Amino acid sequence: MPVRERLERFALFAVGLLLLAFLGSFGIGLFRPATRQGPLAGPEPAPGPAAALPVVARGRVEVLNGSGRVGLARQATEQLRSGGFDVVYFGTAAARADSSEVLDRADQPAIARAAADRLGIARVRSVPDTMLLLDATVVLGRDWPKRAPAASAAPGRRGRWGTLKAWLGID
Questions:
Q1: 36 in a domain, yes or no?
Q2: Rounded mean pLDDT of 158-165?
């Protein structure tokens, strides 16, 4: 048998084996229960404070800083995300605002009210805008926050061990 014919048969045999392996793994995948798999899946998330929130509190929100002070939109975004909200955008408002308010964008007043309660904002208005694909818009005015955040004052007084314990979550 010539060498060329042997190589062709070997290549055909190798392709057949690869096809069988693929079909076998596909068949096994069809009958395996759906689980998180793979190196990037990571461990299953532990139920935390966000999982305990009612479903109504989880909405798509944008945060706009109209106060003129740097960093407030990021601060409010962190508070909302820790409360289970999906903050899809944060940035600077087009105009300055004296008072903070939450705008209901998708006729979902419960989501807008929950975001306002999370941030300590009293004013909630309905201003529908279906083009934004949002449930609520938070506009931070010069009056926000009404009180200084407790987290920024605490780290200096805990000391090194207290900071390390807080970072590791063993407080």
A1: no
A2: 68
